[in-house]
Amino acid sequence: MKKRWHLSYNAPVTLTFAIFCALILLMDSLLGKHLIPAVFTAPGSPFDYHEPLNFVRLFTHVFGHADWNHLLGNFAFILLLGPLMEERYGSPMLALMMTITALVTGVINACLIPAGLLGASGIVFMLIVLASLSTIEKGEIPVSFIFVLAIYLGRELLGGAKAANVATVAHIAGGLCGSLFGFLIAPKKRAVKKAAFDKMDKTIEEKPEKKPLFTPEKLRERARKARLEEIDNDSPRFKKPVMRTPYDAVPTKGPTDDDNTVIGTLEL
Fold this sequence. Notes:
The protein is mainly alpha-helical. The protein contains 10 helices and 2 strands. The protein has a two-stranded antiparallel ribbon with strand order 1-2. Helix 3 (52-60) packs across helix 5 (91-112), helix 4 runs parallel beside helix 6 and helix 6 runs parallel beside helix 8. The longest helix has 22 residues, at 68-89.
């Protein structure tokens, strides 16, 4: 029988994030490019505390993008690394990581950068650094993590440090968030394996191994009883004796003078 292939929504957080960003950009294009600047752009410095929408924009700026090239450039990495990190850490934990990264980049931009900030660049750098820590073990720092941190963050600090380049802040903040998540948050697989082993140990303690229903001794006893009944049924003067044990039969009364049958011993 041939295996039937079907579509799998394997990374719900990553895929939903990508689809929502694409819909936001499409709606912004249809509405004359007014939606993203108003709702999906982080405010710059100085931060206006009297506008309630500004607090929302500290989170929602990751959904807004300047154009389709900006969106595709970010999601080339997000769709590649997001499902891997979602499988490793779980969908709720990845959603929490993305939310924290969005807040951190938004707050830093509102405090330090005069211009607004939009795009998921901070999340991209968070995933890149987090992926470099995928083989981390207790008490060890992967060399690949050091290379990734030096290449990406060093390039932002040395090659793209301009006053108007507000994306640099998001990249650095996202990379720092990814490094903190990689060292502080345990992967989902380790927790699942530990829970599985704990459940197995508890099951063994509560439900000890059951004894088999038919042991060799019970089988031999049943065979002996069946053979004795067969001999008694074939006897011309059948009279069922009272059994004291499963192995020998003793008649209720001793033999009389009229008995002509000799009862012997049968070994099975």
